[in-house]
Amino acid sequence: MKIKNARLVPFIILFTTGGLIHSAPAQQRLTLQDCLQLAFKNSRLLKTSEMALQIAGQKIAASKAQQLPSVNISGIYTRIGKITEISIPSGPGGQKRTFRFGTPNRMNFEVKLQMPVFTWGWIGNTIALSETGRDLSELDKKQQMAALTDQTLRAFYAVLLNEEVIRLHQANLRRAEDHLQATREQYNAGLVPKLEKLRAAVQVKNIQTSLNEAYGNLEKSRIFLAKTVGKNDEKFLITGELQYVLFTQNVNRVINRALQHRSDLKSFKIQQRMKGKQISIAGSGNKPNLFFFSGYNVQNGFDPMNPDKFIDNWSMGLQLSIPLFDGFATRHKVEQAKIELRSVQMQEKEIEDLIRMQIRQTFVAIRQAEQKIQNQEENIALAKEAYSVAEKQFRQGLVSSLEVSDARQALNQNELVRTQAIFNHIMAKLDLCKAIEDYTWFESSVEK
């Protein structure tokens, strides 16, 4: 996923939302770019991905440490209750010489060094395996960034959608209230029956109910956006507009970009490398290992003439270990790793097919939304004309308020459908961005 400075920049919103509902002058206004910056700054999941990278770095360091010599220092103190002694006559006069085989206070201090000389590639493959783990952690972080970007965009546009729906309901309410006022004037003049006035009043109440429901939907979408950007306890407004931008991308090019950029496909490549290293590691299980060792120790109790005297000594050598038979465990581990490698390769092919299918389906959804938008624009023009004619004829006494209500509802419904189609069009383009993990492409389409 391509992201500039961990966010989409610069997102340029051409128009600010006007007449926001329940707005407060002191409330902060956030652009889409502001929301993305806050989301990346406050996301706990993104921070855990960064921690996973740090953990992977520590695992690499621990793997490399196997190449270095290990040094151990040990000390032993032993209290011995009985010591064997031998007295031998020595010299004239019958003098005896005593030999003690040990000392009651036995102490031994030792320093040992051991270093691998040849491990049949086991250490090198272990290091390479931990490095591929770090690569997977980096991909996971990119996926988290893509998911966070996608979630923020969808939450932001959901708020814009609900604000636009409120504006449309408000416009419809004003039309209904105007018609109610006209109906009352007609009723007071004795030109229409009371039923017409009641019908117009009911229509106003119904629209008010729809408007209140839209307020609730707006509040819920704002709560979700606040959670996404990490401002749960703060009130804020957003600046933006639902915009329809004609989609001109080629499906085959988008598929190729997805196959190049998708993190899950890159993840399969890394997993295949990991399985290859695991095969090598498993194959080294029954191979010889050669280690260099050295030691230096100081201990007492060895000189029978002076058992309490400390004597030092040193040693060094090579240790060769050759496994003769491990119950065929190595062979089974190698076969297991090979099967896992083939499984990863098959999963990769399956994901590639799913990506192609998802992108083609998304292209169909985009074309459907574009066709609906175009149709609704024509329908809105016709509905506006129909409502204007119906309202004029009602004032002339040629039609009832029912025809006016039908015309007004048709206009409102077409406006709502067009707004939803624009939102669906944006969501479908976001689906494509998600498929290719490249939101700069979406950014450029917004800026047009």
What portion of residues belong to β-strands? 5-15%
CATH superfamily: Outer membrane efflux proteins (OEP)
Examine the coordinates and then state which fold CATH places here, giving the name of the CATH topology: Outer membrane efflux proteins (OEP)
Overall strand count: 8
Return the structural class: alpha+beta
| Biggest β-sheet description | 4 strands, antiparallel
**Terminal-residue CA separation:** 21 Å
Range of helix content: 55-70%
Secondary-structure element series: EHHEEEEHHEHHEEHHH
Count of discrete alpha- or pi-helical segments spanning 4 or more residues: 9
Our count of domains comes out at 1
Q: What's the CATH architecture?
A: Up-down Bundle
The low-confidence parts are 1-24, 444-448
Q: What strand line-up does the widest sheet have?
A: 2-5-7-8
Q: Which CATH class? A: Mainly Alpha
Global morphology? elongated
CA-based gyration radius: 40 Å
* Mean pLDDT level: 85
General description of the model:
The chain has 448 residues and is α+β, with helices and mostly antiparallel strands. The protein contains nine helices and eight strands. The protein has helices spanning 32-42, 44-64, 122-188, 194-229, 251-261, 263-283, 329-395, 401-436, 439-447; strands spanning 28-30, 70-79, 85-89, 96-100, 105-118, 236-238, 289-299, 311-321. The strands form three sheets. A four-stranded antiparallel beta sheet has the order 2-5-7-8, with no helix packed on it. Strands 1-6 form a two-stranded parallel sheet. A two-stranded antiparallel ribbon has the order 3-4. The longest helix has 67 residues, at 122-188. The protein starts with 27 loop residues before the first strand and ends with a helix. The model is unreliable at 1-24 and 444-448 (pLDDT under 50).
